[in-house]
Amino acid sequence: MPALYSTGERPLRFARFLSWVSLVLILVTSTAFSFVVANNARKTLLMKQKEYAMLLGENLNSHIYKRFVKPTRLAFGRVELIKPFQYRGLDQVIQTTIHGLQVDYLRIFDHSGTVSYSSRLEEVGMKDLADRTVTRAFEKGEHSFSILSRMSLLRAMFSFDMEPETFILRTTFVLKTMEDRLDEDEQEIIGVMEFAQDITNDYKAAVNFLWLVVGASLASSLTLFVLLVTIIRRAERALNERLLEKERLERDLHQSEKLASMGRMVASIAHEIRNPLGIISSSAELLLRRTGDADPLTGRILQAIFDEAKRLGQTVNDFLDYARPRRPGRDPVDIAAVLRQATGFMEGEFARSQVALHADLQEGLLVAGDKDLLYRAFYNLMANSLQAMQGGTVQDATLTLCTRMTRDGQVEVRIADNGPGFPRQGREKLLDPFYTTRDEGTGLGLAIVNNIITSHEGSMELTDAPEGGAEVRVTLPAA
Questions:
Q1: Rounded CA separation 164/367 (Å)
Q2: What is its EC number (predicted)?
């Protein structure tokens, strides 16, 4: 049945393909989701930093105007940072305000784009530090932010040892007068402040969060994949078992149909043969009695005709018994009595074959069945053992009979011999009809016995005896 199994492999291959495709999809989607989450976290972090920079700028604007610009204008009429004492006053206000706030540098540009104040003294008076953000701040009065980085974000993701000032947030803030009586749009722009903050540690935290999300996503994806593969493999094993079981059932059904059709044909042929065979057998027996010892040659020929007709008649009966099995009765049957009856009838055979009989029969073991059919089954099993030990090839030939009640309430009959035992090859076919290892025989003996046992809802097992030889274990439900 190769076609059946090959058709079943297609869904299994598809299941394996589906598992690997699902792994790729899970990894791709989880990784993409991780990067999206991490990028959103980075944007949120930058937003928080910008909000903090705005608060810092507003705080500096308030302190510079209220503590320096306004008092200076009242005292001197105008702000002139070129004068050292005014510069020192502004520097003192700024330094006390940004103390401990991790500001990398701070510059203040005047309307001409010149650095009028800087936390780095060497930059005071320089005109080439004002870029377009400073110019736009003077023109439109808008604050702005920009990120200064020494490496790309992709490189930063794989850099676990970023140096300080790798990422800097630069804020351009418009300094205005802060009079309560004026609206924000009416307030005077007194300068543009630019300050920078080192946010490298925050970027490190964002990168660590990214890898944490990626790692957790990959771990969950691999766990899901392992569970999926486990389920698919279990389903594959179950499907394989079902396919094999289906194949076996179809093979058994095909064999049963073939045997049934053969049995019907054999039954019809055997029925037609039995009548003329009976005439041949009875005629040969009659002629043998009349001839007697008068003609020895004719007597031997008639005896051969009678014996072969009798043997052929037994073969025909075997065919009919297998093709048309009799439905067993359900009467209480004493197993020990049946076995003693069979051994009593075979006592002469035991003596001629020089086979010793050891019987350990437990009394009172009853089964519900047909006494005649069970007698025939045990008789055939013992006859097979005798045939296996005939010919003088077995020393101290012994046939052992044993009965007992099993733990699950079954009656077990053990028939063992110390003959050559069952053959290793083809042992699984010994119960099949028409299969035999002997030169003579129809191969129906064990098949008929198995039919009788199974019709009594029992089972039969062919094994090797512990002491050597063959052993047959018949199990029948107790009455």
A1: 94
A2: 2.7.13.3
- Strand bridging mode 366-369 / 167-176: unpaired
Q: What is the pLDDT of residues 253-304, one digit of tens each?
A: 887 777 667 666 766 666 667 667 677 777 777 777 777 666 777 777 777 7
pLDDT in tens, 172-181: 999 988 776 5
CA distances from 284 to 175, 294, 313, 317 (A): 140, 16, 14, 20
Question: Average pLDDT, whole number, for the chain?
Answer: 79
Strands (E), 110-176: 115-118, 144-149, 167-176
Architecture of domain 327-477: 2-Layer Sandwich (3.30)
Give the pLDDT confidence of 124-138 residue by residue, as tens digits: 999 889 889 999 988
DSSP designation for 429: G
Backbone φ and ψ for 461, nearest 5 degrees, come out as: -125, 130
Query: Is residue 13 pLDDT above 70, yes or no?
Result: no
Task: Report yes or no: 231 and 214 within 8 Å, Cβ to Cβ.
Answer: no
**Mean pLDDT, rounded, for 62-69:** 90
* 3 state DSSP class of 267: helix
Whether the CB-CB separation of 377 and 446 falls below 8 Å is answered with no
Sign of the Cα pseudo-torsion (332, 334, 340, 342, in order): positive
Structure tokens at 438: 């002997």
